[in-house]
Amino acid sequence: MESVQNQHAVNEDDIPRTSRYIWRIGNISKLNEDDHFSPIFSIGPDKWRLLAFRRGCKVNGYLSVYVVAIECKNSRNAKFNLAIVDQTYNHNTLRKDIEDQIFRFTEDESDWGFDDFIQLKELKDPRNGYTVNDVCIIECSISAHDSIEEVVTESIERDSAFVCAFCQTSKVSMKEVEKDEASGPNVVHVHQKCIELAPRVYYAGEIVMNLEKELARSSKLKCSCCGLKGAALGCFKRSCKNTYHAPFALGTSDCRWDDEEGHLMLCPSLSGMKFSHEKTKKGKKLAKDNSSAVQRSSMLKKEKVIAKKKKSRYSRTG
């Protein structure tokens, strides 16, 4: 799935169309790993539907939720957010979106969403109000845009002209890494944290090595949080297929980080496992779970740990 790249003037005649859709899923306890689709709904001439399925076991699994473009012969550009509604007091409604991210839907890549939308144990917990009489309610808001030009200009003006080659956003301060064989416009822009957590990038003196190969590898991997490709960071368990963009892994509840190595991570479904040094050192306490609301102080501490892995040679660009 590709991010929008063109950068042209805004067409003032293009007006985003926004709509909200409510999907009541009955017999939610019987939902399995098969695709379960909502009825089709329309926004202007475009047809959409939602997709939900269970991922993983019933105990430690997740509910996955996606937005699907129907009859998408030409590309569409849209923002969306998804929510699971607290049906009791509406205090716990869980809403997920990718801030300022515009998604391109195509015939080949027609679905975007969240693999780890909510843990099944949280979904079933009566205190959260997400499931009442075996029914849960998914709310989807979609803002569709006619032109790529409008989408890109809006994103660039709000954030930055530079977009991270890994996570496809420019939400935090950007760094640039010059290619060894090129200069000037041939610059790869990345977040410092994204490249520090990219497992196959390393340094030979002051030269960043293997960046292009790592970008090519990650371009085929979807983030388990946002669904966008470019997810270079994988779970410490080799057989696990969960991959993440660095910002989402750092902000995902129940991801567990290795205190000694810093750059090693266990995904939420495998956070109970032990890292190598934890298996060999008796009496060593497990690393604390990463909070979904990452505090600045803890982030700074983690950056110091990660810095032991690689030496940074970035120049600030924004």
- At the fold tier of CATH, the topology name of the largest domain is Herpes Virus-1
Radius of gyration: 21 Å
Count of folded domains:
2
CATH class label of the largest domain: Alpha Beta
The major beta sheet can be summarized as: 5 strands, antiparallel
What descriptive keywords fit this protein?
Herpes Virus-1, Apoptosis, Tumor Necrosis Factor Receptor Associated Protein 2, Chain A, disordered N terminus, 30% strand, 318 residues, five-stranded antiparallel beta sheet, disordered C terminus, 7 helices, globular, alpha+beta
Would you write up a description of this structure?
The protein has 318 residues and is an alpha+beta fold. It has two domains: 17-149, Apoptosis, Tumor Necrosis Factor Receptor Associated Protein 2, Chain A; 160-316, 2-Layer Sandwich (Herpes Virus-1). It is 16% helix and 30% strand. The chain has seven helices and 19 strands. Strands 1, 6, 7, 8 and 10 form a five-stranded antiparallel β-sheet that branches. Strands 2, 3, 4, 5 and 9 form a five-stranded antiparallel β-sheet that branches. The model is unreliable at 1-15, 148-161, 172-185 and 281-318 (pLDDT under 50). InterPro entries: BRCA1-associated, EPHD, MATH/TRAF_dom, TRAF-like, Znf_RING/FYVE/PHD. This is MATH domain-containing protein. Residues 278-318 are annotated as: Disordered. Keywords: DNA damage, DNA repair, Metal-binding, Nucleus, Repeat, Zinc, Zinc-finger.
